[in-house]
User: What shape does this take?
Amino acid sequence: MRIYKKYKKINLINGGVLYYTKNTISKTTKVSLAFDCGSRVEKIPGLAHFTEHMFFAGTDELRTKQEVADKYFKFIGANAFTNIYKINFAGNIFTEELEDYVKLVSHLITHSTFNKKAVESEIKVVQQEIANSIDNNRQMVGYIDDYNVFKHETFKNTILGSAKSVATIKSKDVKDYVKKYFVANNLDAFVVSPLSLKKVKKIIENNLSNNLPVNENFERLDYNFLDIKDNNFYSITTKKIGKAYVYIHFSLNKTMNDRKYINKFFLVMDMMNDFSHGMNKELRLDKNLVYGSSISFSAFKNSGYLTFKTECDNENVNQVITALSNYIKKVLTNGFSQEELTNVKRYFRFTDKNNEPRTNNLNNKLFFYKRHGYIERYKDIKKLCLSTTLDECNRMFKEVFTSPKVSLTLVSDLDKKSVMTKKEFNKLFDNTNID
Assistant: This one.
């Protein structure tokens, strides 16, 4: 079974990059027009996300937010978002509308006015969004980010910023940000389409990249701030933040090339993360130790790692680490149950005969691995995961957690004397004596 294939990577005339693959399973085109300028490069916390908002605040032709919205969101699946790395215009759209969509994105980038009145109005909108991002435990959604793992200063803020930082943003800040980062040689265009590569390249170049300025001195930043060739470290950082951020890393001898294994292993992670059966239930509901927690997978060229991450009160740090260790020991001893596996497989057991792309998106979905150049077909992943057995899941769990290479990153108000030592930490996760 072939569950993935690589993008073709094509350099555009003026320095941008097109990643293309043929869409053979639907008549729609999935497009992602991304600029390497997320929150990690911003000078004011929240500026990247705010700039994304301002692209929809009005242009010299589409003068109001409503006019922009009416034009942009008429495209099926059109969206825009900001993360640590990128600002992204994306859509799963009708193929015959691809050129019009790309033209509109180009227009929003090059003709948005970013005037003072619009900026002041949008500040209030974003501040309300920040207020709405506080969850039931009064924690800001998205505060846990790569800063605590990578120790890189540009990761220290949330994507949204704070109400206070956003209030300082001026029209000039937005204009300067756009001028610096929205250049042709900073464009990554990901396109999965029934159209030929030649046609797609022509559409992207003629309607977007050729309309953008070129900055010959622009240098893209590297993504990989963490050297994981030997990530057996134990790091405690004291900061007056009123709570603790706990990251526990487990090395995994797998890379993004191991697609079949990884897609099977996602079932293991789903069972660990399950709110009704797994680690989340034990730590958050049963023991009331954490605000929320998860296990996620990251991969690089030569290796990968699993990361457990959570927020908790300072006084609960040692207890949280111990509880995670006990959860792992319990699964190593008893294994997952068939009920748990059936529960996470339910996501693949849907039927949808509607051929309209907006509602049938799951059936047509192509999974994007943009940073590593992979896409995956949903129907193949579905077949693979539904055929994965309980024995396979338990065996994969044991491969990772029986004798793990494990490390801790902790950011909290605590000093090192209040946290278990590296020797105690390593001993806690030494599971070699468990049958």
About this structure: The radius of gyration is 23 Å. The chain is about 35% helix and 20% strand. The chain has a mean pLDDT of 81.
